[in-house]
């Protein structure tokens, strides 16, 4: 795989299934337009292939109405401004023209149909007058730099890749599609929630009378990362607290029996990081007091991936995706479960693969599954043996995908360590790059990883590990580095590297280390404390100094205290910048100008310290990008970054 082959990363996303109609939104990077193109595709459940369903350049988030007559989706236009924002469109399921039914200044979120197939709910950001291209009280539309000052009175006021929050809160809407389809222009819509806090994850009650959603604890009256489940009458009225979580609540749905299901984490005291996400259930409250939830899945062994889908009830079970040992498996949780362990949950799909999304209609289950050979294909899981219905990864395979080889070893304290290596095809000896993931409560997975494939195709063996601190190996594994960054996690990574170097045709004298975010932290840490193991380092979007991270990162105000603690001396001790004077290998600092997760000053401080110490340090700075450059940055920037990576390792390995 070459850098320009990111165009072959064709990825199916949300699935919509009703009867014989199966739709998915498929996206890919496009270097010519320097953007991401996406369209809705219809997949033949009989195995007859797939084809275009819509012809927009940026169509996504399909949803089929419960009666099967309509398809709602998001369509964004070209260019900039209001016309480029995603708006809800509706078209007949039998085919025909799509009609736009929203016209919101900042666009709309994914549509969710009501049971009556006449209404849709969604969330959307609503800007204050005079901001983000809207008129102010004087009828003027200020340029961004001429807008009034933001008056900020909370800590959670901006998010990387999203922007400022308080001046454009995310609010809940319901639109009458039947009426909208009869109108020539989209109607003015009134939000059902106010501007006190962002709301998210809307869904309907079975009778269609109420919409469920999540919102910050007590409507963000105080700074918090905790969230709860609320409802509001679909026709308007006062929101009601339904479930007070023990930490966070995501993607609530009402089960056929009237109970409420949601994904949630459970906090202990102020420890709000590195917690497994479980499946929870609560009764619909009969009085004014919210219901107390109960956890259906085990705290230690079950970590649900709430990005894959909301919980789906099938008979007496609930389908969820669970992260485990680098896989993301579709599992079934009994509705009457009590802290069910992973080994007891019925397995439907995902062994040594990654279930990215799924959908259910009647007895049919479909899923998007990524594998070590594919970035994702649509698979029919019911009606016999699993059947792959698409071949979106053919172009990717044609680039020459190299296999993931599993590695298992033990750390110096005998703790098991798991990971992989991706090796070039020729005989070598190959230089080696130890690559560290971000998070840290995240995993490398059993799927195609473009970073490793590009390097391996260029002749480098790439070692990928899930050290202590990673997700998917039990909550205690993930919490092993709380107040211990740079301890057992570093031991695990070096042990995995040593295990890899036992393989033939690898050159132990030509080893580099690289990573981003937490992986950037670890790259800086290893370069300072184990620099003799490496020829050079590539540290990207890193945390290098906890003292300034606390006050500059969008999550620093709780993340640093949770992982490192509030003691200034301990923060200094756990900061790679403290040990910059010990780094003596060539060191590349890589960052994005608009990174709010690990702000630019984190890179600047490390770069200046290294240069002042005489280190051969360089600084690669990407304009206009945020923390997610390597995953969703402009396609040309992603290619330019890959070119720089290959040039760097070409010089030093």
From TrEMBL:
This is Dipeptidyl aminopeptidase/acylaminoacyl-peptidase. It comes from Amycolatopsis japonica. It holds the Pfam family PD40. GO terms for biological process: proteolysis. Keywords: Aminopeptidase, Hydrolase, Protease, Serine protease. GO terms for molecular function: aminopeptidase activity; serine-type endopeptidase activity. Residues 446-653 form the Peptidase S9 prolyl oligopeptidase catalytic domain. InterPro entries: 6-blade_b-propeller_TolB-like, AB_hydrolase_fold, Peptidase_S9_cat, WD40.
